[in-house]
Design goal:
The protein has 191 residues and is mainly α. It has six helices and no strands.
């Protein structure tokens, strides 16, 4: 019963965190990276940080309640996600190979990529363990994330990469919330 309550808490927290990120990102231009919303001076950097920290906590709660191979990538994602919220990029979030980046930008980008990548790996592990919802999520999310990575390297900043990044992140957040909801419906284990 306690694991259902933790999963329900994760679902609510994940949904609220996703909404906070939408609030933070919505005023920005589509050709900006999502992380640009967290830079001091943007309209809602506190919403961005709270959303990121909330997603880190959501992943942590899911790692704790899952108790399967899915828990490992989620648990490792937690500090990466939290660090990506703590270390913001500089204005404009410049990324190589087309822009001059600082060490701060590279640290933020690396932890963000690892956090999202580990969540995507957890999604794949859940699909492998038989979660139909996770199989659908993999089918949707993985191509979006791959296209985002290719777009950043091949094209650089632009509306295409901005839209792909947003869609991939939305798919990850929807999976976290959906997976949490799935865990609330799972029959309790007996030892």
């Amino acid at each position: 019963m306690a694991s259902r309550a933790v999963a329900a808490t994760a679902a609510v927290l994940g949904a609220i965190s996703g909404l906070l990120l939408v609030r933070a990102v919505a005023p920005g231009a589509l050709d900006d990276y999502v992380s640009a919303s967290g830079v001091p001076g943007q309209p809602h950097p506190a919403s961005y940080r709270l959303g990121i920290y909330g997603l880190a906590l959501t992943a942590g709660l899911l790692a704790w309640v899952t108790r399967s191979i899915v828990a490992l990538p989620l648990a490792v994602a937690v500090p990466m996600i939290a660090l990506s919220g703590s270390v913001t990029c500089t204005p404009g979030c410049p990324l190589p190979p087309y822009e001059q980046s600082t060490a701060q930008d590279l640290l933020h980008a690396t932890t963000s990529i690892l956090g999202v990548g580990l969540c995507a790996l957890a999604m794949l592990a859940a699909a492998w363990r038989g979660s139909r919802f996770s199989r659908i999520a993999v089918f949707v999310t993985w191509p979006l994330l791959a296209a985002t990575a290719i777009g950043i390297v091949a094209v650089g900043r632009g509306a295409m990469t901005g839209v792909l990044e947003r869609l991939g992140l939305v798919a990850c957040v929807v999976w976290l919330v959906g997976f949490a909801v799935h865990l609330t419906r799972r029959p309790p284990s007996h030892g």
